[in-house]
């Protein structure tokens, strides 16, 4: 048991915490083996936004929704933004998609064919135009580009092509807009991915300039990777821009954040707290990037938001003065005990209290189930759409 510190600062930090949800998590998804459709799943970007607004209504902590283009393409993005605003949320990061077109078989921006590279780069530029219309701050780039066999293409030329495309996109950014560069170890490329790790992303971001920062998707590493080390390193360098939270047991499983390894999520959030980077004013976009293949989607997303909040609350409870003293004195066991005491604290009553103070139900999932929203969408929506991959 630990003595709870003055909770005023902890509560103030938690009250400000913001988590962005992904439009695609509300849609049907699956594995390459089977998509199990669910009743009531959104059919349009508007319906995805309505579901995201519902998550915000019950959690009070998810006031923006990330879009994925072309999955969420509409004729009038300004109107879509107005629609979201009327429901109480904003449009967050604009995610590009240069991985689902026949032309991209050998890569998008790193393709050996200049015409294909042009097409892919134009998509990145189009995404910035969409940001202009939605008022989004973040252009989020993930490239599936890579090769399957040694010799298939020139590794170094592909880096040159990547750098050229990133430069064009970066130079198109307006004031207040940023580029978030996501990395992923493998899949769909199996031999070499063009941006496989945080170091490669970081190096490209450094070359691009201060508006470019790294996005850490927690499911995109080799097993055993120490993600909190990456967080600490990038924060120190001022180059951490965003997270795609999810959890995994094996590869890019996209399970609910904090489900597979809540201790890892706590360790990550501790580095965020340690780096004074939790406040939205610091600028990190804490997003979810998940698929709910077999579980009900909206409650799963609410659960994920709550899991991130719980990990954060525990991170805020670490007695940092005592920890520093123990570290300075070389008190290895004591230092570890201070961290573990915070992790082992049950923060659920604290978060319930915060919700009540904010006029929310202390149990957002129960409140959602009672609200009738699920029954309403099941009745109103026939044949929900698929997120766009996994078929
Ligand atoms: C790639 C990824 C990336 C995509 C999303 C759908 O695995 O994490 O963020 O945009 O999945
Ligand atoms: Mn991701
Ligand atoms: Mn992923």
Automatic annotation (TrEMBL):
GO molecular function, one term: L-rhamnose isomerase activity
Any single GO BP term: rhamnose catabolic process
Keyword terms, alphabetized: Cytoplasm, Isomerase, Manganese, Metal-binding, Rhamnose metabolism
Pfam families hit by this protein: RhaA
Cross-referenced PANTHER family: L-RHAMNOSE ISOMERASE
Name under which the protein is recorded: L-rhamnose isomerase
Species annotation: Amycolatopsis orientalis (Nocardia orientalis)
């Amino acid at each position: 048991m630990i003595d709870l510190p003055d909770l005023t600062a902890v509560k103030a930090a938690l009250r400000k915490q913001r988590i962005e949800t992904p439009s695609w998590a509300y849609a049907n998804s699956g594995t390459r083996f089977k998509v199990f459709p669910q009743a009531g799943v959104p059919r349009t970007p508007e319906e995805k936004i309505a579901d995201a607004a519902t998550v915000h209504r019950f959690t009070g902590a998810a006031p923006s929704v990330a879009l994925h283009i072309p999955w969420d393409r509409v004729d009038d993005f300004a109107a879509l933004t107005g629609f979201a605003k009327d429901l109480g949320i904003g449009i967050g990061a604009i995610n590009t998609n240069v991985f689902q077109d026949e032309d991209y078989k050998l890569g998008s921006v790193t393709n050996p064919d200049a015409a294909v590279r042009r097409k892919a780069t134009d998509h990145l530029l189009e995404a910035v135009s969409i940001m202009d219309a939605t008022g989004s701050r973040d252009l989020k780039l993930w490239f599936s580009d890579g090769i399957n066999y040694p010799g298939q293409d020139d590794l170094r030329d592909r880096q040159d092509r990547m750098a050229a495309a990133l430069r064009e996109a970066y130079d198109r950014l307006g004031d207040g807009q940023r580029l978030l560069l996501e990395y992923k170890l493998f899949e769909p490329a199996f031999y070499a991915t063009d941006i496989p790790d945080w170091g490669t992303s970081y190096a490209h971001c450094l070359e691009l300039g201060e508006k470019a920062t790294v996005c850490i998707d927690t499911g995109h590493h080799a097993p055993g990777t120490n993600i909190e080390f990456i967080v600490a390193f990038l924060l120190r360098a001022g180059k951490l821009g965003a997270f795609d939270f999810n959890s995994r047991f094996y590869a890019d499983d996209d399970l609910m954040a904090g489900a597979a390894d809540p201790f890892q999520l706590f360790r990550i959030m501790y580095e965020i707290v340690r780096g004074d980077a939790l406040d939205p004013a610091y600028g990190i976009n804490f997003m979810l990037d998940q698929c709910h293949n077999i579980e009900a989607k909206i409650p799963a997303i609410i659960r994920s938001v709550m899991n991130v909040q719980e990990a954060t609350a525990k991170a805020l409870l670490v007695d940092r003065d005592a920890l520093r003293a123990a570290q300075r004195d070389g008190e290895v066991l004591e230092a570890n005990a201070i961290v573990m005491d915070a992790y082992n604290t049950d923060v659920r009553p604290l978060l319930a209290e915060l919700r009540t103070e904010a006029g929310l139900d202390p149990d957002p999932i129960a409140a959602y189930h009672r609200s009738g929203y699920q029954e309403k969408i099941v009745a109103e929506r026939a044949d929900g759409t698929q997120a766009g991959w996994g078929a």
